[in-house]
Structure formats: C-alpha cells, structure tokens
Amino acid sequence: MMSNHLIRTCLFAPINRGQKRQEHLETKLASRSDVQLFYSGTQLDEADRDVFLQLVYEARKQALGEPVRISEARLLSALGKTRGGKDYDWLRDTIRRLHRATIVVEHDQYRIGTRRRPECGLHLIDRYDRDSDGAYCFTLDPRILTLFSRHEYSFIDWNIRLRLRTNIGKWLQPLVASSSNTIHRYSLNDLKEWMSYQGRERDFITALKSGLADLEREYVVLSPTVAKKGNGQIIVSWTRPPSKTKNGIRPSQAYLSAMPGQLSKDELLAIARQDLGPNADLPSVEKWAGELKGRLRNRGKQTTG
C-alpha cells in the first residue's frame, strides 16, 4: 500500500544501477498541483521503494510509533533477494538512506513538517537499530498515517512487482493503481519530470515503451501508446484492465471479448495468473493459459466461419 501523494512525485525514481544519485537539501519535487513535497537526503530508487513498501507492510499490525522487529534474512526473502553478502550490504545501505530521507508535505488539507524547521520533517524510517542477531527493530513516524488519509492510497500487487523487469515499469505500476479510470492519459513531459529522467527525450521514449511492455505482459495495462497529437504534444496512454466486474466476470473474459486477435504466450500466462490469483501454482496457471488459448482459437474460427 502506498500514498498517492508519494506515487505522483519523483521521491522514488527509476534510475539505473550504477547511476550517480543526487543529493537533495529541501528540494521541491515535481508533483501534482494540490500538494508540494520538499525532500532532503540521497536520491531514492525503485529498489528503495520496495524496501519502504515492505517495511510499511510489516508494520501494519503494530500501532504506529511502536517498534517492529524483522530479521535481515526474512526481509531479503520477502524482497526476492538471494541473501548473499552483497544483498545484505545493499539492504543496510538502503535502510540508512530511508532513515536519512526526510520529507516536508504541504497539502491543501494538511501539512507535515515545515520548511522553516526542516528538522521536523518526516523521516521515511523514523528510528531503527540492528541487533547482534542480524535483525532490525524500526519505527514509523505516526504522522505517516496522514499521507493515507481521505482514502488517498493505492494497493500494490507485490507478486507482480517482483516479476517486473524494468525500473520504469516498477515506477509506473503504482501510478496505474492510483487511478480507477479505465483510460489513463499523461503528457510525456509530466512523466519525464515525475520520474526525474535526465536523458534525451528519444531515450526516455524507448525506456518508457519497455516499461509499458513490462506492465502489459503482466496484464497491468492494455494497449499502451506513445503518440504525438496535432498540437505537437506527446501523450502517453493505456487502458487499465478490470480485475473483476460486478457480474463476476473474470479478467480473461473481459480481455478476450474486448481485444480479439492473437496473444503471445506471455500475455496468456499473465491473464491466466490474474484469473487464478497470486497464490496459484505454475502448473495451474499454465493449464488455464492453454484453456484460454483454445477458447481464443475457437472464437477466431467462429468469426471467420
């Protein structure tokens, strides 16, 4: 689960491994007009977001401000890491970055911290300690709950997130989840600014298309396009597929009725996985994908017959 006000900013950016991280001091981050967010700390990436999301998940059963204990090994396992020596080093660096990361939020309805006293801002990890057994004991600032008020939050499918192959795909996943609209449209310039992308526009478009293809494989978006309009503005759009209709129709039924034609093996597997749920085993998913392929083939024969 993630606050929509953090999703629609470059607080977490899809920077590539090895890319130099920027250092910020009360930097105003790009965001929507209804919220201003000021950040101090080292630039955060999508892997940092993964750790933050997992810590928020681990703290869900505790009262905010109360300490939460989790072993390094269990945390790395939840993140899909191998638990090798480099992974432990990476996790310790990430925890330090999230502890140093401080935000001041000015929203139309509330404020967290103040620019006059940035030391009173909200740390993404309020306090933490690592004991001799290799376990973290951390607390989250109770003020973080304000970011989730007024139903301004989105649920992130963790199993899909672990399967995503691109950083831009990971950045876009929460953005897709943050809007219930069927058709999503954003200007290329807004997305470039929100992702804090520093490269050339044509390189960004190439990377963006790869990220959208990543999401399409997992049935997170349908029919993504990057197109120049008559006014010269480049618009990025996609369709958000239904997870389930009011009549109980499965995603595959909605998808196959709306999107006739050939589907790749990866597309069929992604749709089957959405039908059966995240706990389904691979043989069951593959069997259902084969069933969907047969139905699609039969429908094609009926259409041409």
Along the chain, the helix and strand elements come as EHEEEEHEHHEEEEEEHHEHHEEHHH
The largest sheet, given as strand count, sense and whether it forms a barrel, is:
5 strands, antiparallel
* End-to-end separation: 48 Å
- Globular, elongated, flat, extended or rod-shaped: what is the shape? globular
Number of strands: 15
Summarize model confidence as the mean pLDDT: 86
> Which consecutive residue ranges, at least 5 long each, have pLDDT under 50?
none
Number of helical stretches of at least 4 residues: 11
How much β-strand is present in the residues? 15-25%
Which class best fits the helix and strand makeup? alpha+beta
Computed over alpha carbons, the radius of gyration is: 21 Å
Helical proportion? Answer: 40-55%
Describe the structure.
- With 305 residues, the chain is an alpha+beta fold.
- The chain contains 11 helices and 15 strands.
- Helix 2 packs across helix 4, helix 6 packs across helix 8 and helix 10 crosses helix 11.
- It is globular, with a radius of gyration of 21 Å.
- 32% of the residues are buried.
- The model has no long low-confidence stretch (mean pLDDT 86).
